[in-house]
Amino acid sequence: xxxxxxxxxxxVACAVILLAGCAAMPPHVDDYSAVLPENxxxxxQDGGSIYxxxxxxxxxENPVAHRIGDVITVTLAEKTEANKSAATNTKKNSxxxxxxxxxxxxxxxxxxxxxxxxxxxxxxxxxxxxxxxQKNELTGNISVTIANRxxxxxxxxxxxxxxxxxxxxxxxxxxxxVRPLDIAPDNSIPSYKVADAxxxxxxxxxxxxxxxxxxxxxxxxxxWFPF
Length: 227
Description:
Layout: H1 2-24, E1 71-98, H2 113-116, E2 118-149, E3 155-165, E4 168-178, E5 188-190, E6 195-205, H3 206-210, H4 215-221
Parallel strand pairs: 1-5
Antiparallel strand pairs: 1-2, 2-3, 3-4, 4-6
Helix pairs in contact: 1-4
């Protein structure tokens, strides 16, 4: 009976550790694969006409990307910096004194301080200080494709770039919504003009694994650890 109880306790502990390790893992990444352009249906012969549906070349239209599958270059210009500090100091002193008691006039005053007088002193103080700072910077370029065109004309873009260096692979992923008016003539747009942007930078391989905590270390650092 004792062996069964011990085995059950060990199983529960292992399950909690595994759940905590999974909770510390990064969230599932959506699909960032490139979107191919829509296939153009071959037009039927129009009896010798020089114009065919689906094969027109617009002469007075903005040549920047606007169709599903077109490529847009996003210039990564992300830089954030935040600083916060706080300090609190409080102090409080209280003193209460009770004089001696006089009975039947001044001539019958009790002079014993231990019996007829008392004093109360209270001192309290608090000092707190906090400081926090964070700085992030990401620069570069990534080309993405138009995945969808919304009803208001805005474009949903997404894409990724993988770079293999020696024993590791690094990637940059981007997904968001852009306005056609913000796209430059060279089909580029800065990242700070991408709405609802989801930008990820990371890697995999030997170097990335050496800089990652083990699942047991993540458990002890997670909110599930009770101590």
